[in-house]
User: Fold these one by one.
Assistant:
Number 1:
Amino acid sequence: MIVFGKQEVMVSGLLRGYHDVGGRPAGPVEKTTHPFQPWQKTGEAMRVALELKSRLVSLDELRRGFESFGAELYSSLGFYERRAEALTVLLDEKGVLRRDEIVARMREIAAGRGQSVDFATRTVR
Amino acid sequence: MNDRKGRFVSHPDDDATVIEGHAGADYYALMTEATRQLLIERGLLIQSDIDAVIASLEAPRPEWGAMIVARAWRDDAYRARLLADGSGAAAEMGFRIKEAQLVVVENSPTLHNLVVCTLCSCYPRSLLGQPPWWYISKSYRARAVREPRRVLAELGLVIPPEVELRVHDSNADMRYLVLPMAPADSGTLDEAALAKLVTRDAMIGASLAGKDATMPFGRSKPHG
């Protein structure tokens, strides 16, 4: 039994991960399209490049990252946002880049643009 | 949600579990930029490493898959090889499927195939490029295996009740490509013209091949 939001989910005695959404009820499938944003391409490309160059972060590891960072975060993030968060988690875990270094750099870049970052709500203004 | 015996039961909170969130994109764009700068400063990547991967992400497109489908429509021997070994048959035409085994499933007047990835977003990206947004949405991932006919109807494709509908759940080792039926009026077209009738969605099973998506079910199978 696992707690998924307010739910406890059990499937035939097996634990069901929160990413295992197959068969759950959901709203209509929206056929809207969104462009593949430059930051999304860069995020995907960094992960692949790190794997090709030094086998630093595999796709399976990235999946393990967002499939274990918590149901609340998983359900509140979009597809590429989830992957960006998981990459930060993995780089921190492996001691490649610490999260506080990434956070500090985010502040710096935002300040240079006259913006600030609210890390609690994950927003930039 | 499911009860103790694995049976499906509705739950008032279920909807909340599969809403796709897009808030915070600016935050993650900023995080990505910070990470990129730091990785380059530490010498773990150079910009050209990233640019090369972006180019390889941008190159594949549905037209590549359409060329394979058109060849299969015109060449029965190729079609047989494609169904037996998707990756091998794709390689014959110069397309290297890098991420996993390519499995090709064939539609017929009595069978329609639909592809989903319930766990994540597995898709033959190295052939077709990025999947459509709805394919990676939690609504599609959740519902395609539970009520595929209803989902397809929402996407504009009505599968008659007498046609069997098979849903294929992709995983890290298997990527699926649907071989749609050739449109009824395509008999005299050459491969290049045929390929233009094959859309990305038709190769996922979310639509039919051809400009006019009228239902070809019930007519005779194009390849006997």
Number 2:
Amino acid sequence: MDVREGPSDAEVVARVLGGDREAFGLIVRRYESGLLRFATRVLGSRDAAADAVAESLVRAYRHLASCRDPTRLRTWLYRIVANRCKSHLARRATGDVSLDDVPPIADPADNEAALERVQQLAVVEQALATLSSEKREAFVLKHVEGMSYQEMAAVTGERIPTLKMRVHRAREALLKALEERS
Amino acid sequence: MRVALLLACVAAPLAGQSVRIRLENRVPAAAIPIIDSLVQVAGREGLPTEPLVGKALEGGAKHVVPALIVRAVETRLDQLRDARALLVRGGDAPPATPAEIATVSGALRRGLPPPVVERVVGALPSEPRESALHAIADLVAHRLDADSSATLVIAAIHAGLRGGRLLDVSHAVLEEQQRGRTWAESFVRVRDELPDVPAAPKPGEGTVQRARRPSSVSKAPTPL
Amino acid sequence: MNPIDPRIHQVLDGEIPREALPQDLRRVVERLESAAALLAAAPEGRSVAERVLARLRRPARSPVRRLAQWLTAPHPVTLRIRPVWSLALAATLVLLMLLPEERSVPVLGEHEGIAQFVARFPGAHSVQVVGSFNDWRTGTIPLEDRDGDGVWRAVVVLPAGAHEYMFVVDDERWVPDYSANRFVEDDFGRENSVLIVRPVKG
């Protein structure tokens, strides 16, 4: 649910920097859905993702003045969340996503199609969890968040050829993991 | 150094007594004679003995079977020997001080590549390397490349930073990164500001006052 | 890893049209696209907007709180328990004022620092920290959960330097501190957390 209507990012940033703290709520509501989805996929846990996104948004607010180009606010926010996720994964004993951590999908509609969808999602989530965190991040940014390689470079700080190679390897690894599960 | 070795030889039997006392009732009795002899070997070789005793006590507390405790202590002994060899390769006068051996051994155990540790040893001849190695290990723990991390910390050493101020360097990089900068940007920013790195926050007076001094805490940290 | 036909990547990267692919490769592309679509469509959980805005309305954290968080939790656990935590803090302060002579303020030596341990063990009856600093001896550093919210804490004076440690929950369960930044294999098949204590007077 991206809230894209209303003032532009640059206008909202200017309002917040001018002292209108509540205007930051517009930014939060505009981007939290995508940020939560991204963090959940990378961390494999909704609770950890919610913590990471909340903490990142607070940091973003505190350092908003250092966002050099407010028209690229979206990639800046993703970068903060991506960094937060990396720190979170580094703190864990292993960098792997724990499937135990992934909560079941809540109340699927009581029909066969919905149940099948839930099962398919579980298979994809399990397959995604077998990827290294770097590949997982690359795949999610490219194909789930729909970013261009240029935007991904702004988020991760990596060079475009590196990212392209990483996405390719991620696709291959994901396909292999899906095949093993089918 | 000869004097140090001589002292180590004289002190070893005395230390042996206290080692047995420390291990009794805390480590399975079957393992104590072997661990004791390993500790004495380490003492005679001028290696630190505390990491070996600590490992045995850890195994006992975790209810590990005697054979595994002995194996872990043997592994520790080998790691200490490897650390000494690295220090001597890096330019320390043989046989190197027990404190530095323990420091380097800890860094290797935490996964720092030997060439990186050697670079730090070379950058800090005859000075404690503990903080520098901790700072690099901090960055590596966040999945940063060990070589770049070492380059930054060595740049900080050349800029005159020592001890806890080197830990401020890794802290500053992590802070920059959490503000939305890439690792590369964070590195450059901190490097360009050397030696002016912001100090990591210290515990306030309130925290110090709340702190308890536990009843039985070792006098010195057990180096990793 | 089995490399896949490069044309699949070209289609997915928008470099050539899908129609350029033979049927079997098109199915591979569709498989990846449907996996991505499933991930994109899944519900992403509760909004964090309220907790973020509530946090922004609070005054900035003191350096002490920042240090406590830096040393311990990677995420703001305190948000969920704020009212209780405030009460617990107030109660602690009152207690400290009422019983000043019961606790002696530690005088820190040149090579000593403060370690703060925080761990979340809801439902635990006891939590203690053991490590290289207390010869892995239980019963010397208990953590406390005064407000019963499942968050256990201890602030202790330790020698400056590196220490390995674990938590012991209910006298039987050994658990590493997952909020620590650093870990090291314990040579017994598990991992210890690593803590660096900086000298306060450094």
